[in-house]
What does this fold into?
Amino acid sequence: MKEKYYITTPIYYPSANFHIGHCYTTIIADAIARYKRLTGCDVYYQTGTDEHGEKIEKKAREAGLTPQEYVDKIIIDAKDLWKSLNISYDYFIRTTDEDHARRVGKIFKKLYDQGDIYKGTYEGLYCIPCESFWTESQAPDGKCPDCDRDLKLVSEEAYFFKLSKYQDRLVKYYESHPNFILPLSRKNEMLNNFIKPGLEDLCVSRTSFTWGIPVSFDPHHVIYVWIDALSNYITSLGYPEDDTLMQKYWPADLHLVGKEIVRFHAIIWPCMLMALGLPLPKQVFGHGWLKIDGGKISKSLGNYQDPREYINAYGVDAVRYYALREVPFGSDGNFSEEALISRTNTDLANTLGNLVTRTISMSHKYFKGIVTNPKVNTQLDHELINQVLALKTIVNEKMNNLKVNEAIEEIMEVLRFCNKYIDETTPWLLAKDETTQDRLATILYNLLESIRICAIFLSPFIPDTSKKILEELNTEKKSYESTGNFGSLETNLKLNEPIILFKRIEATKA
Ligand code: ME8
It folds into this structure.
């Protein structure tokens, strides 16, 4: 049976159209999902939208629409964006989906019936744009620690979830599962800043607005958006109504989130799952932020960029590649169009594009585009072959540790070696001499075979380009298994005509 792999992104707020920061998480999750599929896993990749709450209600009112009309428009745009980025999600969940809303209602009722949710009065500081509550010690200046806006003092009758009851179990879980929260710095932050000072029971209902899932036994209350939102990871699998997909995919293997929402995923979510008697996700990874000029890109700060502008200007794979390669995964990084151009030129146009075009052109020029049998390999050839064959283990190790940028760099390193191999073996000189034709055939075979294998490894990251390269090679050998055997490329194949994979971009465009 295939190994299963369940990966999720956060479900984003459709309060405005998505920006490059949302693309960042979604592209990385997509690359991981594609990599897992390539290696033979049965993958369930889920993304979606978090559509309830006061902020959306307010935005819709400002736009003169009902909340449902407002979010429907944004969801069309979001799905179009994911299509243009080649995002291969298996399921797109919306919290306004009937199935989801009904199941969240049941989850809330179950927690209430078993005594994990109770009724009380809430008084506290609330940030509307971030939909989060803060204690006075967390926000001593009355400003939201995430977005620095003024917090609102709220007092209302509300339901509470007994978070405090699960504190000790949560700490024990962290101790016995050292890789549950990564990077480790985020886990320490959770323990020291939130858990050790003592978890307070969490307010999980609101009466100050109506755009949400009503509490079934007290419909004057709507369910707190984070309870609604976090539940998406299991309601999409049918919980609590149908066990089939839960059996197959739960627990999630990876919740990929931005660092600002780790605390919801690392504290509230595991406690909810413990209360429901369900296994906890295997890992929550909190990545860093993409910034513009050192500041956070965010809808609430208003420095919004339409990612399609970059896709239209430079191509989908240039944008994907940049998002995946530029920033060490986990750290913050700056997004700039200059860096995108420079990355595209050096890695995609020069290293990859040139190599493929040069090799296929030479094969056409010297062997009429026919893949010719290799003969004797020299020491340099063996060096190339060994590097190519080592990729499978290295890339696997890097991807399993979510070092996505390093996995890509390893492939690039091999491609750079291929370019060096051409420069050192000088095929154009060998071509002039009748006696070196076998040597020339060997070199071209080794290059074409290296390109084939690298193209397969690149497929999770730049799928369109990988496909184009394999089409140029006209090969049937596209499987992951075939990357373990140097020499799988069929001889006597007729290569297709060389194409330009990436044009060098002139910096004036930026
Ligand atoms: O928080 N850099 O939704 P959201 C990197 N609905 N990633 C970024 C980013 C940036 N500048 N800006 C956004 C929510 N992101 C909740 C989630 S989940 C049960 C509910 C990405 O629309 C990153 O993944 O504010 C971040 O965590 C997420 O978008 C926040 O999206």
Remarks:
- The two ends are 49 Å apart (CA to CA).
- Residues 338-509 form a domain with the Isoleucyl-tRNA Synthetase; Domain 1 fold (CATH 1.10.730.10).
- Residues 10-13, 21-22, 24-25, 50, 229-230, 232, 257-258, 260-261, 289-290, 296-298 surround ME8 (CB under 6 Å).
